[in-house]
């Protein structure tokens, strides 16, 4: 199958918007929906850096979408259209593109995203995937990292640390008294859990500042603190962990500090004024969103960690850095 057959067979069916011209032209066109503002983000995945060579490509495709969708949701945006850049290793069986396309289709459909175009190349190096996601948000614009106010509560969706533990699990470096939890964690690494679409409206309606967690909970809260020129206090006892992560803590396979600093979570962390609490809990109940209050914004700089005895200590974590 040559490059053009491949695009026609696997990617053209994912171009559901007529403005993608069936992936048979030099460009696609876009008009944001009436009354909405266009937002754009891009994140790449590289074999051996973001996923393991032996990971099924169906899950790699889902991870590729989710690491991008998490940025958009955290800004109060609705995912809409996307561009895919595929750099295929010359030594990898091209038939694997079929599983990649299956994973892509599942998540594109789930999130209502049309593929608008892309690029296909080969390389003597590792598999590299670039994904650019276009989305729309209210005319008031995306919720920024800057904007947190003194007295805001800090909230986080889902649970923290499964991606980090899942990498150990996927590498065969984790054993637990419940082996099914090892398998579950490896799955979480390959297909990160991200909040439901309903988080976008909640963020738009109540958040002063917001970001997704990718580099690490502490580092990403620090981004908000820095951009907003305030200090964040995280109550360590309140950070939500999955039952598998709790088992890892009980069986001393990991420490809580590792879980909150290592990243690969893709949940949303946001700040909101205390009076928004009722609306947040209502949305959480109404949409089945899992949202936990984990801290406060106050005057000062950086991030403090509040221990069980109430004492606060500064915590510095740069999070994941490529160089
Ligand atoms: N090579 C680049 N060229 C232009 N802008 C870039 C480049 N790399 C990053 N940026 C921009 O820098 C800012 C921060 O990017 P970063 O990738 O750290 O954010 P993120 O996607 O939220 O985090 P993560 O990559 O860990 O998911 C964004 O505005 C991003 O568009
Ligand atoms: C094989 C393997 N080793 C390490 C990690 C951990 N990791 C890689 S990049 C990243 C931050 C987000 O990426 P970026 O900043 O590029 O968007 C994290 C936490 C992984 N996922 N897979
Ligand atoms: Mg990025
Ligand atoms: Mg990102
Ligand atoms: Mg981000």
UniProtKB/TrEMBL annotation:
<feature type="binding site">
    <location>
        <position position="215"/>
    </location>
    <ligand>
        <name>Mg(2+) 5</name>
    </ligand>
</feature>
<dbReference type="InterPro" id="IPR016188">
    <property type="entry name" value="PurM-like_N"/>
</dbReference>
<keyword id="KW-0067">ATP-binding</keyword>
<keyword id="KW-0784">Thiamine biosynthesis</keyword>
<dbReference type="Pfam" id="PF00586">
    <property type="entry name" value="AIRS"/>
</dbReference>
<comment type="similarity">
    <text>Belongs to the thiamine-monophosphate kinase family.</text>
</comment>
<feature type="binding site">
    <location>
        <position position="214"/>
    </location>
    <ligand>
        <name>ATP</name>
    </ligand>
</feature>
<dbReference type="InterPro" id="IPR010918">
    <property type="entry name" value="PurM-like_C_dom"/>
</dbReference>
<feature type="binding site">
    <location>
        <position position="41"/>
    </location>
    <ligand>
        <name>Mg(2+) 4</name>
    </ligand>
</feature>
<feature type="binding site">
    <location>
        <position position="119"/>
    </location>
    <ligand>
        <name>Mg(2+) 1</name>
    </ligand>
</feature>
<keyword id="KW-0547">Nucleotide-binding</keyword>
<feature type="binding site">
    <location>
        <position position="145"/>
    </location>
    <ligand>
        <name>ATP</name>
    </ligand>
</feature>
<feature type="binding site">
    <location>
        <position position="43"/>
    </location>
    <ligand>
        <name>Mg(2+) 2</name>
    </ligand>
</feature>
<feature type="binding site">
    <location>
        <position position="212"/>
    </location>
    <ligand>
        <name>Mg(2+) 3</name>
    </ligand>
</feature>
<protein>
    <recommendedName>
        <fullName>Thiamine-monophosphate kinase</fullName>
        <ecNumber>2.7.4.16</ecNumber>
    </recommendedName>
</protein>
<feature type="binding site">
    <location>
        <position position="71"/>
    </location>
    <ligand>
        <name>Mg(2+) 2</name>
    </ligand>
</feature>
<feature type="binding site">
    <location>
        <position position="26"/>
    </location>
    <ligand>
        <name>Mg(2+) 4</name>
    </ligand>
</feature>
<dbReference type="Pfam" id="PF02769">
    <property type="entry name" value="AIRS_C"/>
</dbReference>
<keyword id="KW-0418">Kinase</keyword>
<feature type="domain" description="PurM-like C-terminal">
    <location>
        <begin position="149"/>
        <end position="302"/>
    </location>
</feature>
<comment type="pathway">
    <text>Cofactor biosynthesis; thiamine diphosphate biosynthesis; thiamine diphosphate from thiamine phosphate: step 1/1.</text>
</comment>
<feature type="binding site">
    <location>
        <position position="26"/>
    </location>
    <ligand>
        <name>Mg(2+) 3</name>
    </ligand>
</feature>
<feature type="binding site">
    <location>
        <position position="50"/>
    </location>
    <ligand>
        <name>substrate</name>
    </ligand>
</feature>
<comment type="function">
    <text>Catalyzes the ATP-dependent phosphorylation of thiamine-monophosphate (TMP) to form thiamine-pyrophosphate (TPP), the active form of vitamin B1.</text>
</comment>
<dbReference type="InterPro" id="IPR036921">
    <property type="entry name" value="PurM-like_N_sf"/>
</dbReference>
<feature type="binding site">
    <location>
        <position position="264"/>
    </location>
    <ligand>
        <name>substrate</name>
    </ligand>
</feature>
<feature type="binding site">
    <location>
        <begin position="118"/>
        <end position="119"/>
    </location>
    <ligand>
        <name>ATP</name>
    </ligand>
</feature>
<dbReference type="GO" id="GO:0009030">
    <property type="term" value="F:thiamine-phosphate kinase activity"/>
</dbReference>
<feature type="binding site">
    <location>
        <position position="320"/>
    </location>
    <ligand>
        <name>substrate</name>
    </ligand>
</feature>
<feature type="binding site">
    <location>
        <position position="43"/>
    </location>
    <ligand>
        <name>Mg(2+) 1</name>
    </ligand>
</feature>
<feature type="binding site">
    <location>
        <position position="42"/>
    </location>
    <ligand>
        <name>Mg(2+) 1</name>
    </ligand>
</feature>
<keyword id="KW-0808">Transferase</keyword>
<keyword id="KW-0460">Magnesium</keyword>
<dbReference type="InterPro" id="IPR036676">
    <property type="entry name" value="PurM-like_C_sf"/>
</dbReference>
<keyword id="KW-0479">Metal-binding</keyword>
<feature type="binding site">
    <location>
        <position position="71"/>
    </location>
    <ligand>
        <name>Mg(2+) 4</name>
    </ligand>
</feature>
<feature type="domain" description="PurM-like N-terminal">
    <location>
        <begin position="25"/>
        <end position="131"/>
    </location>
</feature>
<feature type="binding site">
    <location>
        <position position="71"/>
    </location>
    <ligand>
        <name>Mg(2+) 3</name>
    </ligand>
</feature>
<dbReference type="InterPro" id="IPR006283">
    <property type="entry name" value="ThiL-like"/>
</dbReference>
């Amino acid at each position: 199958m040559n490059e053009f057959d491949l695009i026609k067979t696997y990617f053209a069916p994912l171009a559901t918007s007529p403005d993608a011209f069936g992936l048979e032209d030099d460009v696609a066109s876009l008009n944001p929906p009436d009354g909405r503002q266009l937002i754009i983000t891009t994140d790449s995945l590289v074999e051996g850096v973001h996923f393991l060579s032996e990971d099924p490509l169906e899950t790699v495709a889902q991870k590729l979408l989710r690491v991008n969708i998490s940025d958009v949701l955290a800004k109060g945006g609705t995912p809409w259209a996307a561009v895919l850049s595929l750099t295929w290793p010359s030594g990898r069986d091209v038939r694997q593109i079929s599983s990649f396309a299956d994973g892509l289709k599942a998540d594109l459909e789930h999130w209502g995203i049309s593929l608008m175009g892309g690029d296909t190349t080969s390389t003597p190096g590792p598999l590299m995937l670039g994904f650019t996601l276009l989305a729309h948000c209210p005319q008031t614009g995306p919720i920024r990292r800057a904007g947190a106010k003194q007295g805001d509560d800090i909230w986080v969706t889902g649970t923290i640390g499964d991606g980090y533990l899942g990498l150990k699990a996927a590498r065969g470096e984790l054993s637990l008294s419940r082996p099914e939890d090892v398998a579950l964690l490896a799955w979480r690494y390959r297909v990160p859990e991200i909040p439901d679409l309903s988080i976008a409206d909640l963020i738009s309606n109540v958040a002063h500042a917001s970001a997704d967690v990718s580099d690490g909970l502490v580092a990403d809260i620090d981004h908000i603190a820095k951009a907003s020129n305030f200090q964040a206090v995280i109550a360590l006892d309140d950070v939500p962990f999955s039952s598998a992560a709790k088992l890892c803590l009980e069986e001393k396979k990991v420490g809580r500090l590792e879980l909150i600093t290592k990243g690969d979570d893709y949940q949303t962390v946001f700040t909101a004024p205390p009076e928004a609490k009722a609306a947040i809990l209502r949305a959480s109940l109404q949409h089945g969103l899992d949202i936990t209050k984990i801290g406060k914004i106050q005057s000062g700089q950086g991030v403090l960690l509040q221990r069980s005895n109430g004492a606060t200590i500064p915590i510095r974590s740069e999070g994941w850095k490529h160089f």
